[in-house]
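Input sequence (192 aa), recorded before submission:
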Amino acid sequence: MVTVPEAPAQEKLITAGEMFETPGFDKGYELVKGEIVKMSPSGTEHMTVAAWLIHLLTLHTEAHDLGDITTSEGGFLLSTDPDTVRAPDAGFIAKARIITPTPRGYFPGAPDFAAEVVSPNDRAKDIHDKVIDYLSSGTRLVWVVYPGSRTVIVYKPAGEAHIFGPDDVLDGGDVLPGLSLPVREIFKKLRT
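Predicted structure, token format:
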């Protein structure tokens, strides 16, 4: 049996580098203003939607040579001193921002696009905080995906937020040019 450490009661703030080098904090944790935060557990619905969304985004970005799609297995260093590292369920780094060689640790900066798939145990405040962290650090497009209602809320830096239902179509705008994705396609792999 593998034991994953609980987020420790912290006496001091830690850095992204310290978190990256600590065994056990490579999955299921984020760093928020120097404090380790355990992400809420997700179920089959969450991982099915996230995996399918990553697949759809990868098909589009590869066909148009736009950049790289990321998963929640890594993280983006959004701010420093104190450090914040967020791990969106799906992220996108535009081709012009790709670093060579690929960084061993967290990507230094915000994703151009971030998608969070909401799990039943997620708190609205935590999702809101993530959206604010992404947008305030330079993310240009954020999707919050709700499997339960089959809806997506799209956030942009200018403070815009729009709700898209199953019959609507999402647009990648200038972040993911040419992307036209029916909302219902995101939930295609969920069986009712």
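Checked by second reader. The CA atoms of residues 118 and 124 lie 9 Å apart.
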